[in-house]
Specification:
Length: 355
């Protein structure tokens, strides 16, 4: 395994795959993809490649077969100077966002990511529900989620906010930092130990590109002032993989407007393990946790053991996961619809949000 590829995050099993391909092909890692053209980092620097016929055929039957940022690939250098991307190595992990309004097949945002940093600015005040959605997406990917609360220089009580966020993020570390002052950047940097690959996810204006610049120690990426209303304006427009000079790889992404969940619901279970564990104790297997007798979720709500807000997040996320599943399974569709109509009716009837 070459040192250059190792610095780009090459792992053992992918190295094996890359060694199994014919000798005249060149391995590399996809830094970015723009419409049918990939920028691939190789041992001899970055090159631009188009898709091979075989790859195009594979993509016709499975859009997820197309290369995305973070993929390990093999390239063919042709005598006429063309470079084609021949195949994509099996992905260790994949961040998959459900297509908004498209097919039920998700869009792969980034591949072979070890750590997903959910980047959240401390100003405006973090939206816990949104963090939970990002966590569900992150757990689903197979990578390790970490919540990075940035812009600590703008608040006085960063640690108190971090504690609140930690309650909503069981199993994930919560870090506090500032790209501006450098506070807490050492712990963010250590997420890249052993040439790990870290993808940054978060809303526009959260401070993702600023973190990449702070990690790199140079202004690599554009950063722009946020609008007066505090909303970002989507400064970054594409996903981009950056190999840091001191080792480790970061993938910057544009702010996500909608975070779609994939259908399996595993991410949901991992993001809200307390509610999921309760749901397993319900008397009926098909309990929808609204008015059923012997419902452990309702019992915990009544006893005050389960915060109402977490219950609400769970209902919302579960509904979304079920929606995705429904799109892929026509048979389930009508059953699910009936169930959710019933559930949401009695939900509205029985529960007035506490003030
Ligand atoms: N005070 C302060 N401002 C920050 C910090 N990090 C980022 N900012 C500011 O926040 C704004 C948005 O930062 P970006 O890094 O462009 O945010 P982004 O998440 O990449 O946004 P998109 O590319 O639109 O998704 C810029 O005005 C930054 O200067 C920080 O640690 N402290
Ligand atoms: Mg950006
Ligand atoms: Zn129940």
């Amino acid at each position: 395994m070459s040192a250059t590829l190792q610095a780009l995050g090459l792992d053992g099993s992918t190295a094996e795959y890359l060694q199994s391909v014919p000798d005249d092909l060149v391995p590399g890692r996809v830094a970015r993809v723009d419409r049918g053209l990939a920028t691939v980092l190789t041992e001899d620097g970055p090159v631009r490649a188009t898709w091979s016929g075989a790859l195009l055929a594979a993509m016709a039957s499975d859009p997820q077969a197309g290369p995305c940022t973070g993929d390990w690939v093999v390239l063919r250098f042709w005598p006429d100077d063309r470079i084609t991307l021949e195949s994509v190595a099996p992905r260790r992990t994949a961040i998959v966002r459900a297509e908004v309004g498209g097919s039920s097949r998700g869009q792969v945002l980034a591949a072979n990511v070890d750590v997903i940093a959910i980047v959240v600015g401390l100003v405006p005040e973090p939206n816990i529900g949104r963090i939970e959605r990002f966590l569900a997406l992150a757990w689903e990917s197979g990578a390790r989620p970490v919540v990075v609360l940035t812009k600590s220089d703008l608040v006085g009580d960063a640690e108190a906010i971090a504690e609140d966020v930690a309650v909503a993020a069981p199993g994930a570390d919560v870090l506090v930092c500032s790209a501006t002052t450098g506070f807490g950047m050492d712990s963010v940097r250590s997420l890249l130990d052993d040439n790990a690959t870290m993808a940054l996810l978060g809303s526009s204006g959260a401070g993702k590109s600023s973190l990449v610049n702070a990690l790199a120690g140079v202004e690599l990426l554009d950063v722009q002032d946020i609008r007066e209303d505090g909303k970002g304006r989507h400064t970054s427009v594409r996903r981009e993989l950056i190999a840091l000079p001191q080792g480790g790889v970061v993938i910057d992404t544009p702010g996500l407007r909608g975070v779609g969940l994939q259908e399996s619901g595993e991410g949901l279970a991992a993001a809200l393990p307390d509610v999921t564990a309760l749901a397993e104790q319900c008397k009926f297997k098909d309990c929808v946790h609204v008015t059923e007798p012997g419902c452990a979720v309702q019992a915990a709500l009544e006893d005050g053991l389960l915060p109402y807000r977490r219950y609400e997040s769970w209902v919302k996320l579960q509904r979304e996961a079920a929606y995705m599943a429904r799109r892929t399974d026509a048979r389930l569709r009508s059953e699910m619809k009936k169930e959710w109509v019933r559930a949401s009716k009695s939900y509205r009837r029985d529960f007035k949000p506490r003030q």
